[in-house]
């Protein structure tokens, strides 16, 4: 399994996925630095030692974090999807899979090795991007977060990687790389659309009984692809929204990045179980598939 894992990383380096990912991340970091400067200007929070000033400082930091992770969610998701779209059929089309499976290697071990390769790579990238966004915001605004909050929110931020790799690899057992990539991108876009519907339903204009079917649709979308819901919970943990309820409604200051609804712990358990079930389905399917 370790050899398959190593070969997966070698394949990603050979295809220059790693190079392009790091180059685009560096470009994003530079752009985000100047964007944060344009949004908050150059306020000197240290000269205004009042509760109002502290809230203003934290609100600026929360806005920048929400903006940064809006991009970060797409970057991590697309890396997880497009690194694994050809995990099975792509290898079969080039004859690589047949030569590997001819050896005394159980198919489930090969499948799991590929999954670990893509997932660990995605988690490392998620950690790099997460640290970059948090450090830039901390430097620009002076907002510092405690270690437990950072750790919990990173786990939620990275939890999208195993979910998307699992679904994409399952699709790659039957679909061509192109078809699988289109399907997974559409599925992820639907998840984002479900989150947008939730936000619209939370507004005063659409808060009536006639819009109840939309709430059902957005809920079904979240169950089919929980990626956006996990992102919402990550931001809620990172910004400690519940801790600020007594002082101010921080969510109202996030503008277009405001959170519609915060998924419960039960939903997190569902997302983990959903990933495990699809993983088991992928292992079962790869054992039955005739190449």
TrEMBL record:
Transmembrane segments: 20-40, 61-82, 115-139, 151-175, 181-201, 267-286
Top-rank taxon: Bacteria
Keyword Transmembrane: yes
Keyword Transmembrane belongs to the record: yes
Pfam family, one: ABC2_membrane_2
Record's keyword terms, sorted: Membrane, Transmembrane, Transmembrane helix
Name of this protein: ABC transporter permease subunit
Natural source organism: Paenibacillus thermoaerophilus
